[in-house]
């Protein structure tokens, strides 16, 4: 081998050694941060796909709950993570869209993240405890107008879609109500089961098991059409509350600067998982729809959602300090 050839071979080997992440990703376990407590849709959907992703990527996907502050704690952890493809976030409508409008200051910004793909989108559902006297939206509104000081609503956290959905509901229906925030849908649903507040507009998957068991009563869904899984539950429009269509969404996000090779491989694996018959059917049973759009499409979608919710938050005068 000539000196020139030996030099070229040595240079190629040096480049390969200097860039192991790009060449071999993933070569160790991946951490998937969930910015909410166990039991909510963010947690449920992440755990449903984690094992399937592990099998496709050949490395364990470790789920880690970092709840609190309307998803800010988990989102901030991702923004500070090394952009090597080994730390991801199950992002959602709250920390990745609503929060930018709701809070005057945040410890992260949109450019800190690299969207990968949408995992699932779901409608929300207006639910009350089975012991509630309200058997319809009109019953609930009558109750709220009769004794407004006693009406309260729970949510998975300030800024999450259940919170903003309830604020929209109050505006559209012209009622009052005190907000009670929890560190995720799981704790909020548990509190509603314990009759700690009047109503909740929850992401459907976390309330669905309790609706089906009769422990919670569904009064309306925020989709534009009735759901096959809840055929007897009217839409908000059918229940007399106009302009009340809300879709919550959840998807994978990586730190900005993550190598494109890792993003592309993760996108392809996640798309195949969420569109597989097993997972897409599980999502349908939860009232959700599987995602799988490209990173560019998901990024454009998040931009649109951020602008949409800014208009809603500004109109409602909901901007607050963190």
Automatic annotation (TrEMBL):
Residues 1-23 form the signal peptide. Gene3D superfamilies: Bordetella uptake gene, domain 1, Periplasmic binding protein-like II. The keyword Ubl conjugation does not apply. Keywords: Signal. Belongs to the UPF0065 (bug) family. It comes from the Bacteria. SUPFAM superfamilies: Periplasmic binding protein-like II. This is Putative secreted protein. It comes from Achromobacter arsenitoxydans SY8.
């Amino acid at each position: 081998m000539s000196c020139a050839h030996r030099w070229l071979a040595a240079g190629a080997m040096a480049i390969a050694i200097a860039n192991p992440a790009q060449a071999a990703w993933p070569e160790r376990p991946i951490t998937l941060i969930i910015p909410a407590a166990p039991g909510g849709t963010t947690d449920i959907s992440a755990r449903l796909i984690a094992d399937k992703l592990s099998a496709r990527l050949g490395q364990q996907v470790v789920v880690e709950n970092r709840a609190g502050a309307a998803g800010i704690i988990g989102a901030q952890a991702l923004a500070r993570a090394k952009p090597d493809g080994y730390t991801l976030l199950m992002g959602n409508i709250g920390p990745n869209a609503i929060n930018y409008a709701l809070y005057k200051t945040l410890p992260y910004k949109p450019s800190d993240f690299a969207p990968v793909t949408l995992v699932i989108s779901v409608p929300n559902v207006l639910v009350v405890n089975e012991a509630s006297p309200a058997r319809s939206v009109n019953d609930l509104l009558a109750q709220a107008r009769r004794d407004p000081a006693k009406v309260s609503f729970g949510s998975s956290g300030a800024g999450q879609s259940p919170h903003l959905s309830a604020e929209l509901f109050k505006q559209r229906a012209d009622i009052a109500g005190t907000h009670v925030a929890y560190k995720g849908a799981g704790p909020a649903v548990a509190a509603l089961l314990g009759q700690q507040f009047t109503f909740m507009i929850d992401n459907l998957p976390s309330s669905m098991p309790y609706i089906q068991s009769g422990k919670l009563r569904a009064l309306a869904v925020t989709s534009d059409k009735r759901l096959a899984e809840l055929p007897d539950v009217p839409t908000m429009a059918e229940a007399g509350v106009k302009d009340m269509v809300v879709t919550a969404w959840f998807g994978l996000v990586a730190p900005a600067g993550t190598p494109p090779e890792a993003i592309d491989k993760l996108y392809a694996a996640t798309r195949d998982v969420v569109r597989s018959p097993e997972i897409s059917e599980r999502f349908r049973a939860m009232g959700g729809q599987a995602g799988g759009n490209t990173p560019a499409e998901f990024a454009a979608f998040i931009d649109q959602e951020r602008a949409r919710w800014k208009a809603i938050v500004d109109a409602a005068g909901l901007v607050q300090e963190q």
